DNA sequence: ACAGTTTAGGCAAACGTTTGCCAAACTCAA
DNA sequence: TTGAGTTTGGCAAACGTTTGCCTAAACTGT
């Protein structure tokens, strides 16, 4: 399968050996100088080698380096479905923060499937990745094993199913409570909360926080809690809204524990002639960047996804140094529309 | 910096040598069997080694393999800003298609900056990536060099600035023309097209296709073409809409060459009391998945992003085998709302 | 029985690093 | 002059693969 060119290999470029040969020194000397150990060679040698490095554009080959030292400058992000704008926002901010740290990100879309998550965990491990960022983790054997081994893992949005470990997210109960306050202030008296049929801890916290706060502040009021089935939050929101009954039975305010669920509810409302807002005031959580542009009907608790990346990277660094990194809860804020 | 455990290295697991030692054969034999060369050993040996491989969960270390053979099972995707849902859709479908091919994807967010694009191109090259997927490429020296070397690169959405190479996208002129037909059918008589101040070839084609078709079908009608400045298409759409003048001068139909621009226009319309649709009928291109849920006012040319991934991977494979992969134009379809 | 062929499997080099260890050569003081 | 200490830099192993080449031993056919 050889090609025309002698070395069409993509990675082909100056190696330590090339520089060494040209400089008339040994590979070790070049390696040391390239790594900044300037006191291991005479000033003349250092100068010569540095010049050659610059001229040839030499950069140490990360693959050789990985093999030797087990350091790869590689971090794996496992995320369920990138189509969710919230995931994309997390991925984007993490990528940027990693780049600043000289690391690159491998993106793995697990589609929320434990088997795929496991496959990726194994594959990434054998690539010497330096850490994992697992967004909305699902329970899986390999994840349990990795946690057990103490691999550097940062959980995002959803906590580890296997005991308290590094976590970056928001205070979900409080977010739910803030949403309750918002609906209370808007005069809602017949509140509801919707959620996907399969409850994650994140969603549960949001809903519980909402219900508790609402019922505490409005004695005598009961919050309806309605589940909807669906492969994603859009469908789940639509289904849950469908289960709210005919339009006259609809609540006048609804917690949607993610913006996508609110979108699902919106469509159901449109189909039933329920005015949103007006008849029914939804409040979301996430505050997708598009809301400001095309969902002026949706107040939402803004989750500071752009701030996640730097904190995630920070966490990862602590972890790799053996310090246990605890939970980082970032501040959220309700955006009224 | 040593830890408590003897080998806390993340990648630590059975190697060829371990298996070989245990089986009492040489490393080469294990390697051959692991790679399916079953005729290079006696059935008994094969059986024994395969059993051990299964037991120990041995998988060849991709790093060693890369170093040796220059094959890394790694592909780099360079994309500007993941926040754009279209990019996220492309990334998601490409990731899935690559996984099916046993390859993992490194995601690089170039923020549309030539310098960052170059930095990533270099970094990825030295990691032996097997190919590049460049979404909406910008011109940059390193890209030119890579194209010159004949590196496997698939351009997505926007063609190579350096001559005709592998490309996956849609027929942008035709998409524009289809949008024109749609507005004509809806009775639009005072059409406009908006676009970002800095024109990419993609956007230019869409706008030109629209203008040509509209003016050809509606003799005597001139399409207003208005630019808007902004860091992203949302802002650019908003700015361009702002430049349309007071509401009574607004066109009754507008081509927005991306959905994000349509969202920008929508906001501007809302602020001015222009009813959308009603007073002004926008047509987008992309058909973001969220449109169906929260933008019932937006007809849009659907770009089949989920189909991009498999074609991109196919392209990459051809390229790596030395066959020149041409342009792949995927079918689009207007979605009326 | 013997030459010829196939089969089974080991050796060693190569990919590009990093780093512990060793050895010259030099410096300096007594 | 000698001995100790420092500077400078090379050697070689190790990381985990793959693969060309080699060599026995085991077959095959006459």
Output the CATH class name of the largest domain in chain A. Answer: Alpha Beta
Work out the helix count of chain A.
Answer: 13
> Per CATH, what is the topology of the largest domain in chain A?
Rossmann fold
**Unreliable residue stretches of chain A:** 1-9
Strand order, sheet with most strands of chain A: 2-1-3-4-5-11
Largest sheet composition of chain A:
6 strands, parallel
CATH homologous superfamily descriptor of the largest domain in chain A: Response regulator
Q: Oligomer, anyone?
A: homodimer
Structural class of chain A: alpha/beta
Q: Number of domains in the coordinates of chain A? A: 3
Please provide the count of β strands of chain A.
12
CATH architecture annotation name of the largest domain in chain A: 3-Layer(aba) Sandwich
Q: What is the 3D shape of chain A?
A: elongated
Beta-strand content estimate of chain A: 15-25%
Cα-to-Cα separation, first versus last residue of chain A:
61 Å
Gyration radius over CA of chain A: 26 Å
Overall mean pLDDT score of chain A?
92
Give the SSE order of chain A as H and E letters.
Answer: HHHHEHEHEHEEHEHEHEHEHEHEE
Largest interface: A-B, 63 and 63 residues
Q: What this model shows, in words?
A:
2 copies of one chain form a homodimer. Chain A is α/β, with parallel strands linked by helices and 337 residues long. Chain A folds into 3 domains: 16-60, no CATH class; 69-165 and 306-332, Rossmann fold (3-Layer(aba) Sandwich), CATH 3.40.50; 172-302, Rossmann fold (3-Layer(aba) Sandwich). Helices cover 45% and strands 17% of the residues of chain A. The first copy, chain A, is built from 13 helices and 12 strands. In chain A, strands 2-1-3-4-5-11 form a 6-stranded parallel beta sheet, with helices on both faces. In chain A, helix 1 crosses helix 2 (27-34), helix 1 (16-23) crosses helix 3 (43-56) and helix 8 (172-185) runs parallel beside helix 9. The longest helix of chain A has 17 residues, at 201-217. In chain A, 47% of the residues are buried. Mean pLDDT of chain A is 92; it is low at 1-9. Chains A and B meet through helix 4, helix 5, strand 2, helix 6 and helix 11 of A and helix 4, helix 5, strand 2, helix 6 and helix 11 of B. Strand 2 of chain A pairs antiparallel with strand 2 of chain B. The structure holds a DNA duplex (30 and 30 nucleotides).
């Amino acid at each position: 399968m050889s090609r025309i060119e002698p070395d069409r290999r993509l990675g082909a470029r100056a190696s330590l050996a090339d520089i060494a040969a040209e400089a008339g020194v040994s590979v070790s000397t070049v390696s040391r100088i390239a790594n900044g150990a300037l006191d291991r060679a005479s000033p003349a040698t250092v100068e010569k080698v540095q010049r050659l490095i610059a001229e040839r554009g030499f950069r140490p080959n990360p693959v050789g380096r990985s093999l030797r030292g087990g350091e790869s400058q590689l971090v794996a992000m496992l995320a369920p479905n990138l189509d969710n704008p919230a995931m994309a926002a997390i991925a984007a901010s993490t990528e940027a923060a990693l780049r600043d740290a000289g690391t690159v990100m491998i993106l793995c879309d697990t589609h929320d499937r434990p088997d795929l998550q496991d496959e990726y965990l194994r594959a990434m491990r054998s690539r010497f990745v330096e850490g994992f960022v697992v967004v909305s983790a699902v329970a899986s054997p390999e994840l349990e094993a990795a946690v057990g081994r103490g691999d550097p893992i940062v959980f995002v949005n959803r906590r580890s199913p296997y005991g308290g470990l590094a976590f970056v997210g928001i205070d979900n109960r409080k977010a739910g409570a803030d949403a309750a306050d918002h609906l209370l202030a808007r005069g809602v008296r017949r509140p509801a909360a919707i959620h996907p049929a399969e409850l994650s801890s994140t969603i549960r916290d949001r809903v519980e926080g909402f219900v508790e706060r609402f019922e505490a502040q409005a004695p005598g009021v009961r919050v309806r809690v309605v589940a909807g089935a669906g492969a994603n939050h859009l469908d789940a929101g639509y289904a849950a809204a469908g289960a709210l009954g005919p339009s006259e039975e609809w609540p006048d305010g609804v917690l949607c524990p993610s913006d996508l669920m609110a979108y699902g509810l919106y469509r159901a409302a449109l189909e039933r002639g329920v005015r949103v807002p007006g008849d029914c005031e939804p409040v979301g959580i996430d505050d997708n960047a598009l809301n400001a542009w095309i969902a002026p009907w949706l107040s939402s608790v803004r989750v500071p996804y752009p701030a996640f990346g730097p904190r995630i990277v920070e966490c990862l660094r602590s972890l790799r140094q053996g310090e246990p990194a605890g939970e980082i809860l970032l501040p959220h804020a309700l955006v009224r529309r």
